[in-house]
Each structure stands twice: as structure tokens, then as C-alpha cells.
Amino acid sequence: MRKKVIAGNWKMNKLPNEAISFIEQLEPLVKDCENEVVLCVPYIDLFYSLLYAQKTNIKIGAQNMHWEENGAYTGEVSAEMLKAIGVEYVIIGHSERRAYFAETDETVNKKVKKAHLVGLNPIVCVGETLEQREQGKTIEIITNQTSKALEGLTEEQVASTIIAYEPIWAIGTGKTATAEDANSAIHEIRNEISKKYGQNIAERVIIQYGGSVKSTNSQELFSMPDIDGGLVGGASLNAEEFSKIANS
Ligand code: 13P
Asked: What whole-number percentage of the chain has pLDDT above 90?
């Protein structure tokens, strides 16, 4: 039985003091939650978030990392740096990073490998644009992104990689994929993993849905057999709303 992981992606939102009060507010609301609760916060909030989440069941993640250990990479943060302060999760290849910051399948793959090497749990984002969807290319795009992201990993590393299926047209638009559509896309991703690494490994991979997840649709989405939780943007900025999603 796979566990469900409900991760908030704050994107470029919240100052450290706001992160602290958010966690203080969220903690009692999710303390009995059976799902894994993760907050992926801006770099500047990581340390404070880790401090305030210390004796809670809330896990902290970053939203990006570099694949090199150190060096002349102005403005970058390495996996080792994240690990050193106690970060447990890291989002890799979010569509906003692919679109605005030149992230490619190759850089995503390098980052996923590095995350595993240092013991961070990568949450790898895949998803199609509206145009690709209308051209009937959804499955081709997302299975391709998935196999490239996982290239060169050991079976154990594949099994412990979290995939987030985020159709780009559903991000921040209020348009959610239907639970059936999301489930069948995720099922195809699992199939692709099964073809390469076998059914046993594929059955262990946690695959989330992301894109306009709210407390009003989370229950339906997360009850689908292949959907193992969600990556939540806008609705993760409000502690009460996010707690309802986490407790779905
Ligand atoms: P929204 O939930 O705001 O649509 O964002 C989804 C997302 O991009 C999470 O990574």
C-alpha cells in the first residue's frame, strides 16, 4: 500500500515570519493526519520552517537545487546544502522552471540523480501544455518526461522517486483535470515505469496529481486508485485550506 503525500508548493510566496505563523497554525490541524504532509518553501524560509516544524509531523522541502556539490554557480543552492540543514524533499523540474528558467529533461535527470545520492526525496514534475493535450500528445509527453527523468537510476532509486503529474493548463487556472482523466494519465506513467523497471517497482512509486487542487476536489482526486496525493500551489498558502486537503 503506497502512502499518500500531500505537498504544498508555496512558489515565490511568504516571508520567514509568515512561514512561521503558517506552521504554528497548521501543526494542530494536521497532527493526526495519516498522509505525509510536506511544505516546499522558498530557500529563505527553509531554516525557519525546519525549526518550527521540528517536533511536528510536517516535513520541509525545497523547490529546486543544483546538481553540482559546490563551485562557481552564482545564485544556486546545492543538494548538499539542503541536506545539511535538514531538508527532506525537493521539487525538481516544475513546469514553471522548465518554462522560465531553461530547465530541460537533461538537467532534471542530473538533479534527480543528485538528490538520491545525498538522500533527498525528489518530487519530479511532468505535464503537458494545452496545445499538446489538444494534439493528443499527453501520454507521449508525460511518459517521455518520466523516462528521461529516471534515466540511469537504480531500481530502488526509481521506487523512491515521487512523480507529480501536473497538466500545465490546470496550474493556477482553476481548471482541474477530472479525477478520471488525472487517474488515467497517472496510470500511463505507472505503466511506463512498469515496462522499464517491472511491476513491483512501478507499484511502489508515489505519483501525485497537481493543478488547481482545492479542498473541494481533493477528496475525489485522492480517492482514485493511481493518485497518491497532490502537489498543491495556491491552496497551500492558507493553513486551514491546506489542512483540509492534507486530511482528505
Ligand atoms: P495550483 O495548485 O496553484 O494550480 O499550482 C499547482 C502547482 O504548480 C503545484 O506545483
From this structure: 98
Structural domains of the chain, with CATH: 5-246 (3.20.20.70)
Q: Find the 138 Cα to ligand 1 centroid distance in Å.
A: 18
CA distances from 203 to 18, 109, 151, 160, 185 (A): 38, 21, 18, 11, 15
As a whole number of angstroms, the distance between CA 168 and CA 224 comes to 20
| 65 confidence band (pLDDT: 50, 70, 90) | very high
Give the span between the Cα atoms of 56 and 62, in whole angstroms: 18
Q: What is the pLDDT of residue 101?
A: 97
- CB of 233 sitting under 6 A from ligand 1: yes
pLDDT band at 78 (very low <50, low <70, confident <90, very high): very high
The pLDDT score that the predictor gives to residue 1 is 77
- How many whole angstroms separate alpha carbon 242 and alpha carbon 248? 10
Q: Give the DSSP per-residue string, 128-172.
A: --HHHHHTT-HHHHHHHHHHHHHTT--HHHHHT-EEEE--GGGTT
For ligand 1, atom 5, the nearest C-alpha belongs to 233
| Measured distance CA(165)–CA(126) in Å, rounded | 5
